[in-house]
Design goal:
The structure is a single chain. By secondary structure, the chain is an alpha+beta fold. It has a single domain, classed as YhbY-like (Translation Initiation Factor IF3). The protein has 3 helices and 4 strands, in the order αβαβαββ. It has helices at residues 5-15, 31-44, 57-67; strands at residues 22-23, 46-50, 71-76, 79-83. The protein has a 4-stranded mixed β-sheet with strand order 1-2-4-3, sandwiched between helices. A hairpin with a 2-residue loop joins strand 3 (71-76) and strand 4 (79-83). The radius of gyration is 13 Å and the shape is globular.
Length: 98
């Protein structure tokens, strides 16, 4: 599900007050980090992830999003915002339509 510009803007505003829930350390995306990301994003839908320092933050954020089948909303500094709607059909966020 590709996000539109309006949906991305909406999700950025919703994520502004959130604190990072998962931290990706220097080992990168380990199996335990992927499991934690998956369970956290299933519960929260919109999630901030603290990234490892370095030049590969954008790739690391995209890798995390791909690992849990989520959309990468934005990367600002060392923090990435991921979004994935719940698999059970309930949702916390009603995304705007274009």
């Amino acid at each position: 599900m590709a996000l539109t510009q309006q949906q991305t803007k909406f999700l950025k505003a919703q994520a502004h007050h959130l604190d990072p829930v998962v931290t990706i350390g220097k080992r990168g995306l380990t199996e335990s980090i992927v499991k934690e990301l998956d369970s956290s994003i299933e519960h929260h839908e919109l999630l901030k992830v603290k990234l490892n320092a370095g030049d590969t933050r954008e790739a690391e954020a995209q890798g995390a999003a791909d690992a849990v089948k989520a959309e990468l909303v934005q990367v600002v500094g060392r923090v990435a915002v991921l979004f994935r709607q719940r698999t059970d059909g309930t949702t916390k966020f009603k995304l705007p339509r274009d």
